[in-house]
């Protein structure tokens, strides 16, 4: 875009410059679009298949696990991973009843809601995650528990006033004082909207959580890596990467009651059967759980078991860290600071007797000779499986240790899996695994030197900070530490996406020879240092707006007049309800935040197409007023299941589970499942409303409502806004979100829909843009860039993506993860095993940011692997629309033919590929739209005040509050009423340029695209059965026309 503007300024200077201008201008007209789609109609009445979050490693379901669903034709959607290990390698944990973990898919809304027109395709759910007693139908049933048997409050929910309103006096504006993106709350008003009542008792208890003074009275993270420590049995594993930790709780061959530390090498992974899709890839892979390589325990814990007095408590529960305490007889016997990426696992003792156990067993335990570090005793544990662990004990008589006198830990080895201290001990015991390889090899020697230097110091937490400078965004992990040797640098492990984005300074701290495998994130490498800084290019997210977008051309609003006329007839039916039973008020009246959000977002996208691309402002006005009324039903909390503020964990949740006693209602929203999916659609809709009518966002109630949902999923700091945890779902260590809420899972947190994850961050970006929230805007641009990198490293597999060398070669042929857990990846969905389900759940919704995450090379490879040669036409119902909307990113004209049944704009379409064949329908540069000055990327003559404004069709980058196109991506919010200045390149000039080029030679100018097999066009086009109730043909066609230059 910058190059284009500079060329325009000297376009009369040389023929070469003029030719370059023609080519670049053409590119801006060719690749522009996005589609909105959701789960298709075909699966709404289907049953939800149970999925084994807690494989018992025996390879079969127990009698308790058998369900009608699990014995059906698609029962193999559930994968029980069978560990190929010996009894020494793994512990067979008892199976868990899936009723504690899973739920069924809701029924169609048309069957359960008297307010829903049965002839209207309804919004379908995204398959969600584990729930106890999940018998939910998505309906609004009467409570299913009696007052005596229900684990829920007997009343529907407590309508107490919201918590006391608190104003952050230190942040009275969105302007940051210290430059840190994470030091500014979403809104200076920290109150909960008055329409949302407070609920004091959540049905999921906060087991063993005691926040210290440091933690304060802040909200508790619900979707983070450490949740198994305070959920359910509290004995499922927690993955810090590369290690996993587990409260042994007397289970397995070790029989210990301490903290079990495990690590699985890539060679120990178990791969499933070949996926039936014909790719030749394994359907799943995972690592053994419960190995208990080394167990750090204490004599009081082992004896305390006899009286049943052992408890696990957690303290200082934060986003990337937690303190675990094992208690016996009321006394803390062992404390372990747990931090993501920690290089050594540390246990702290105070006048206790350490006990070291192992579920693997050891061949030999030896004490190192000489002095490693003052006051440190070192042991080497050579395990039965051939691996070697190092154990460091720092402590005893601390004053004696500092003087260099004896006082360290002495172990009495009792057999091949128990060692007990010979006396009372105060200090720390740390363990670390040496990388694979023979003793004396470089990686083993280097690792031992690193551990020797770092012992005595341990990480306790992570402070996150960040900034955006021009087109570069940075986020930094500042590791907090404690210990006797605080001058020693920490050893931490970095995942592949960290390594690829390290700053030059952080890269210099990497020790590439010291590496350990992770379960699902490739190989982690050691970094010596107390601070990491990662860098991302944020220019592309900052060039996005509401209209179709491509990485090459940015945002473009131009399509031909004939294409506009065709889409207009479709939009009139979909937006104004002239056919198919379309009705905004009716369709958006849903018993679910997920359903409701999908329906609202569908119409919001139609409004963007109608107003900004078609220029039909009168039609847009009518639809806009209906959408405002529909949105008000939710913002005033008058929907079928109102929201409540949960005081136990700290968050805004659906009242559905309180009302029905069913944890599975609304996909576990009450239990914090999928909040970024659910609320992301509302945030996007609010952004569109603010974009089309800035006065709507100036309403305090509208602003407060959307901001409260933003705060629930993307609060940058719980210390500044204690009502919500920091980034409830998004994990800054992993670079993506976890959708799994307050349910124990033996494979850790998980997420299925990577595309809905990116949707929620895009929605945050657009809300910030529409409301001039600079900190949120820059933070969301950084977050979306990080997310794109992470998804292309772990979720989306193509020959050009980093994932091709990160994930196992036996699995990447699947092209997408399916469901990614912390311990395994399974190429299935929570609702079935059909190919369009598994691939499609990572496609929807199609929005302007889609091509930023799902690049064309990936889309081409996935299409040719699974959907070419007519395979896409076999997809059921609305999935067909999802697939062809995705196909439009590589062949928009071919997709147009399929969507329209061959009805082409005036100049026709190509017979394959994405090429400019003419200037269809006359002046292709005459489109109008909303070019407001509050941050949309479309620039021109429009104002930011109403839907009646117009805008140019070519986007020079603008940012919140910037009225002038700029070559950088910095944002300086100003009033939304400030109009934009004229664009550097007008819409009419673009049209004239294209026509002149065509008049000279009628030549075809190809766009940089990737050709895929041409689909078969259906003569009568797509009918209602092929467009899901949460998607729209209007948006699909707008996507195709913009990207295809139609």
From TrEMBL:
Domain Glycosyl hydrolase family 81 C-terminal: 559-914
PANTHER family in UniProt: ENDO-1,3(4)-BETA-GLUCANASE 1, GLUCAN ENDO-1,3-BETA-D-GLUCOSIDASE 2
Source organism (scientific name): Neurospora intermedia
Record Pfam families: Glyco_hydro81C, Glyco_hydro_81
Bias-annotated ranges (Polar residues): 77-89, 192-201
Occurrences of domain Glycosyl hydrolase family 81 N-terminal (ranges): 202-551
EC number annotated for this UniProt entry: 3.2.1.39
Cited InterPro entries: Endo-beta-glucanase (IPR005200), GH81_C (IPR040720), GH81_N (IPR040451)
Low complexity bias (residue ranges): 140-155, 165-174, 944-987
Family membership noted in the UniProt record: Belongs to the glycosyl hydrolase 81 family.
N-terminal signal peptide: 1-35
Keyword annotations from UniProtKB, A to Z: Carbohydrate metabolism, Cell wall biogenesis/degradation, Glycosidase, Hydrolase, Polysaccharide degradation, Signal
Comp. bias intervals (Gly residues): 919-943
Region called Disordered, residue ranges: 62-99, 140-209, 910-991
Keyword Phosphoprotein: no
GO molecular function: hydrolase activity
Catalytic activity of the protein: Hydrolysis of (1->3)-beta-D-glucosidic linkages in (1->3)-beta-D-glucans
Record's protein name: glucan endo-1,3-beta-D-glucosidase
């Amino acid at each position: 875009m910058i190059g284009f503007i500079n060329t325009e300024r000297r376009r009369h200077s040389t023929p070469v410059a003029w030719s370059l201008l023609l080519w670049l201008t053409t590119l801006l007209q060719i690749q522009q679009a996005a589609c909105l789609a959701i789960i298709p109609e075909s699966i709404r009445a289907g049953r939800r298949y149970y999925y084994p979050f807690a494989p018992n490693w025996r390879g079969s379901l127990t009698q308790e696990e058998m369900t009608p669903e699990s014995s059906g034709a698609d029962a193999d959607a559930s994968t029980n991973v069978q560990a190929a290990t010996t009894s020494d390698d793994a512990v067979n944990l008892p199976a868990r009843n899936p009723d504690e973990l899973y739920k069924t898919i809701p029924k169609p809304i048309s069957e359960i809601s008297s307010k829903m027109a049965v002839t209207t395709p309804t919004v379908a759910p995204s398959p969600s995650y584990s729930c106890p007693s999940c018998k939910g139908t998505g309906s609004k049933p009467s409570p299913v528990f009696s007052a005596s048997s229900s684990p829920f409050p007997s009343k529907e929910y407590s309508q107490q006033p919201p918590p006391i309103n608190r104003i952050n006096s230190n942040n009275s504006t969105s302007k940051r004082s210290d430059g840190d993106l994470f030091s500014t709350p979403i809104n200076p008003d920290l109150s909960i909207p008055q329409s949302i009542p407070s609920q004091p008792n959540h049905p999921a208890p906060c087991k063993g959580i005691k926040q210290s003074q440091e933690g304060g009275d802040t909200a508790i993270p619900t979707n983070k890596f450490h949740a198994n420590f305070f959920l359910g049995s509290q004995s499922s594993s927690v993955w810090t990467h590369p290690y996993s930790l587990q409260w042994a709780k007397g289970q397995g061959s070790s029989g210990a009651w301490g903290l079990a530390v495990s690590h699985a090498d890539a060679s120990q992974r178990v791969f499933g059967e070949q996926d039936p899709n014909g790719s030749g890839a394994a359907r799943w892979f995972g690592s053994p759980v419960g190995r208990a390589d080394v167990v750090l325990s204490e004599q009081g814990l082992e004896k305390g078991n006899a009286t049943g007095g052992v408890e696990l408590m957690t303290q200082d529960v934060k986003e990337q860290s937690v303190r675990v305490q094992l208690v016996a007889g009321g006394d803390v016997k062992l404390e372990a600071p747990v931090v993501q990426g920690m290089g050594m696992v540390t246990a702290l003792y105070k006048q206790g007797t350490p006990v070291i156990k192992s579920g693997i067993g050891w061949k030999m335990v030896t004490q190192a000779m000489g002095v490693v570090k003052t006051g440190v005793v070192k042991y080497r544990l050579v395990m039965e499986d051939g691996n070697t662990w190092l154990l460091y004990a720092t402590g005893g008589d601390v004053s004696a240790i500092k003087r260099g006198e004896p006082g360290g830990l002495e172990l009495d080895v009792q057999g091949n899996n128990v060692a007990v201290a010979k006396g009372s001990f105060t200090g720390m015991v740390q363990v670390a695994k040496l990388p694979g390889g023979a003793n004396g090899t470089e990686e083993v020697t280097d690792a031992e030197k690193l551990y020797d230097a770092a012992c005595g110091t341990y990480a306790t937490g992570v402070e996150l900070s960040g900034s955006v400078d021009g087109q570069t965004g940075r986020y930094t992990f500042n590791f907090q530490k404690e210990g006797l040797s605080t001058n020693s640098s920490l050893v931490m492990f970095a995942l592949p996406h960290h390594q690829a984005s390290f700053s030059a300074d952080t890269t210099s701290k990497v020790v590439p020879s010291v590496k350990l495998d992770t379960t699902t994130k490739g190989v982690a490498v050691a970094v010596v240092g107390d601070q990491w800084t990662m860098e991302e290019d944020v220019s592309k997210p900052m060039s996005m707006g509401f209209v179709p977008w491509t990485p090459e051309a940015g945002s473009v609003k131009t399509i031909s007049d004939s294409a506009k006329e065709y889409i207009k007839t479709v939009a009139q039916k979909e937006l104004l309800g002239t056919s198919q039973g379309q009705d905004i008020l009716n369709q958006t009246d849903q018993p679910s935040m997920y359903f409701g959000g999908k329906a609202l977002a569908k119409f919001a996208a139609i409004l963007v197409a109608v107003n900004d691309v078609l220029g039909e402002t009168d039609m847009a006005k009518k639809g806009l007023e209906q959408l405002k009324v529909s949105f008000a039903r939710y913002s005033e909390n008058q929907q079928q299941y109102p929201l409540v503020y949960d005081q136990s964990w700290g968050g805004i949740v659906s009242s559905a589970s309180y009302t029905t006693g069913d944890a599975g209602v609304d996909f576990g929203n009450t239990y914090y499942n999928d909040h970024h999916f659910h609320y992301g659609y509302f945030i996007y809709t609010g952004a569109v409303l603010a974009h089309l009518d800035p006065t709507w966002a100036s309403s305090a109630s509208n602003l407060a409502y959307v901001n409260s949902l933003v705060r629930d999923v993307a609060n940058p700091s719980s210390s500044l806004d204690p009502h919500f945890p920091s980034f409830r779902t998004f994990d800054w260590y992993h670079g993506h979100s976890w959708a799994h809420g307050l349910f124990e899972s033996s494979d850790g947190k998980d997420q299925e829909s990577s595309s809905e994850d990116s949707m929620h961050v895009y929605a945050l970006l657009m809300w910030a843009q529409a409301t001039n929230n600079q900190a949120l805007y820059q933070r969301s641009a950084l977050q979306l860039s990080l997310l794109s990198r992470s998804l292309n490293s772990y979720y989306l597999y193509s020959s050009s993506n980093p994932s091709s060398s990160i994930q196992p070669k036996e699995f990447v042929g699947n092209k997408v993860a399916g469901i990614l857990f912390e311990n395994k990846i399974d190429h299935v969905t929570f609702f079935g095993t059909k190919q369009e389900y598994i691939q499609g759940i990572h496609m929807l919704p199609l929005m302007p940011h889609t091509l930023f995450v799902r690049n064309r090379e990936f889309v081409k490879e996935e299409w040719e692997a699974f959907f070419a040669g007519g395979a896409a036409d076999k997809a059921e119902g609305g999935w067909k629309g999802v697939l062809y909307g995705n196909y439009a990113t590589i062949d928009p004209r071919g997709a147009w033919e399929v969507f329209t049944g061959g009805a082409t704009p005036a100049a026709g379409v190509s017979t394959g590929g994405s090429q400019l064949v003419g200037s269809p329908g006359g002046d292709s540069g005459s489109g109008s739209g909303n070019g407001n000055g509050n941050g949309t990327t479309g620039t021109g003559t429009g104002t930011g005040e109403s839907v009646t404004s117009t805008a140019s069709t070519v986007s020079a980058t603008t940012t919140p509050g910037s009225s002038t196109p700029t070559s950088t991506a910095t944002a300086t919010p100003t009033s939304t009423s400030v109009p934009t200045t004229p664009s550097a390149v007008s819409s009419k000039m673009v049209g004239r340029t294209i026509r002149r080029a065509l008049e000279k030679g009628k030549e075809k100018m190809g766009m940089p695209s990737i050709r895929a097999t041409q689909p078969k066009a259906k003569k009568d086009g797509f009918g209602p059965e092929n467009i899901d109730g949460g998607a729209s043909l209007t948006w699909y066609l707008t996507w195709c026309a913009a990207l295809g230059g139609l």
